Amino acid sequence: MQNARCQRSWLQLIVATSLVFLPGLIGAQEPNPQQQDNPPQQNPQPDKTTQDVPPVAPVGPAATGPTPVDAQIHPAGKAVPWFGSASPLRWGDFSIAKFSYNYVNDRFQPFGGVPTQDIDLNILQTSIIFEHHFGKQHLLLQYNPQVAILNGKVAGNAGMDNEIALGTTFQLTPRFTFVVKDAFVQMHSRQLYPPDYLAVDQAGGNLIQNNFLQNAGSYLMNTVTGIGVYQWSPRNTLTFSSSYRYAHAAGDNNVNNVLVQTGQDFAESVAFTRRLTLRQSIGVVYTLELLHLTQNVQFPGNTYFHTIEGYYAVQVTETWALRGELGGNFTSYPNDAPPLRTVAAGFSIVKNFKNDWGNFALGYTRGRTEDNFITARTGDLVQAVYSQHLFKRLVWNSGAGYYRETGAEPRNTGKMLDTALDYEIAPNFFMSGQYAYLFQSASIPQLLSGRRNTIILGVRWEPRALLAP
Predict the structure, then answer these.
(1) Cα gap 232→449, rounded to integer Å
(2) How far apart are CA 264 and CA 262, in angstroms?
(3) Shortest CA distance to 248 belongs to which of 223, 266, 225?
(4) How far apart are the C-alpha atoms of 204 and 105, rounded to whole Å?
(5) Gap between the Cα atoms of 222 and 447, Å rounded
(6) 16-40 pLDDT tens trace
(7) Where would you tag: which of 115, 198, 223, 454 has the fewest CB atoms within 10 A of its CB?
(8) What pLDDT band is residue 398 in, cutting at 50, 70 and 90?
């Protein structure tokens, strides 16, 4: 109890200190960075690092280069910044970003002698966008509903899954921007087909590593984040963020497993970055995370994660981008459980091929706590993707991933492979075929344990570039 009170005191002190010093930082009288040798906008095109004004500005703060805290608003599940909807289906502030139909053949082989599950589904998806500008502020709402149909009826173990993303940008002063993001995910059963596991921003050299472990039953999560970006000087940026996440997981009713688990997560991050040159940035980031677990969990109560890392990013050439983080993670558990001290690290590599004919990306994170299931353990996640134009309208995409929890057995692990072909049959109309393999061994009832083979055939309308991430 004494340790928990001490941790809460530190959290309160950090928040109070931020509130006290923030007004002074905002009101500090320094020369306007726009009048000095300002580095280029974040996420520049590879051949345009000296361009003063990009034709379209991404939604979010104009920071001095990449930062370890993501302050950009993105299309749902993507790594590129939001540049606006390209859809011709627009009515005022509303637009339809895409339509898709997929036929899915899914074969799941559980461990432990449980019979194999084979399903054939028809899945309809769309994306509805609401975007409104008022003054220097910006509001973006993305709603991605999904309906699964089995034998002419809405599937009993799938139903309607929903994903909603909200982003609002407030340009409070020329040097201070505040961003609010909210993400809501509702899954009635396990993921019916694999998403983009590793989202790539080819122009900015950034990655977003998405989760790929599969839930055994329903899963609901809502995450709200507030991010402040203060451009201290043309080269120095101070970023802070506060986030709250609620998660609720239930077992698979088809196997009479109705276990319910819930958790709440509070996180505070502070990062300082300095741009050394037009292509290099360094920095440091500290994160304090409080995970409160309640029902049917291994460590009920409060778990604290302390992570501090050094940061470095470099655009090596016009087609190579590297970034890395290295530091330590200290985790303290409730009920006198032994603490965990481990290395916290991460790196990413993005290689673009010339003439926009493809890209390769590799991402690794050690000490990851952002999962699509409820756990007090950190994990290692490594993912790679490769995209290549076989012909002008035909693209081959492939990827692989590996996840393993840190610590002793039993722990959750997963491996995945997937390959796909995308063919542009007409402008903005695509036909695709995909195969995905997943091996997953779970120590908790929230996750599946077994092998999964999935074949997906689909068509979609989506006004974007063929190879856009």
Answers:
(1) 49
(2) 7
(3) 223
(4) 36
(5) 19
(6) 433 333 333 333 333 443 344 343 3
(7) 115
(8) very high
- In 3D space, the residue among 218, 269, 225 whose CA is nearest the CA of residue 245 turns out to be 225
Could you identify the residue written with the tokens 């459980």?
A: 337
Structural domains of the chain, with CATH? 2-107+115-348 (2.40.170)
Percent of the chain with pLDDT over 70: 73
Q: Are the beta carbons of 298 and 376 closer than 8 angstroms?
A: yes
State how far the Cα of 420 lies from the Cα of 397, in Å rounded to an integer.
Answer: 5
For residue 446, pLDDT over 80 is answered with no
Q: Which pLDDT band, with edges at 50, 70 and 90, does 295 fall under?
A: low
* Cβ atoms within 10 Å of 369's Cβ, excluding its own: 20
Q: Give the whole-number percent of the chain exceeding pLDDT 90.
A: 29
Phi, psi of 18 (to 5 degrees): -60, -40
Give the tens place of pLDDT for each residue, 65-104. Answer: 567 888 888 777 676 677 777 788 889 889 998 899 999 8
* Cα angle 345, 398, 185; round to 5: 65
What CA–CA distance (Å, rounded) separates 339 from 77? 34
At 98, give phi and psi (nearest 5°).
-165, 160
Residue 178 CA to residue 445 CA, distance in Å, equals: 39
Q: How many CA atoms lie within 13 A of 352 on its CB side?
A: 24
Would you state the pLDDT for residue 9?
47
Residue 283 CA to residue 313 CA, distance in Å, equals 9
State both tokens at 192.
């019916």
140-147: long-range contacts, CB 8 A cutoff, minimum separation 24: 140/59, 140/73, 140/82, 140/165, 140/166, 140/167, 140/168, 141/165, 141/166, 141/167, 142/75, 142/76, 142/97, 142/166, 144/76, 146/192, 147/123
Q: What is the pLDDT of residues 402-413, one digit of tens each?
A: 998 877 778 888
Short-list 240, 230, 236, 243, CA closest to 171: 230
In angstroms, the CA 265 to CA 180 distance is 17
Average pLDDT rounded to a whole number, residues 459-465: 81
The 10 Å CB-count burial string (b at 16+, else e) for 205-242 is bbbbbbbbbbbbbbbbbebebebbbbbbebbebbbbbb
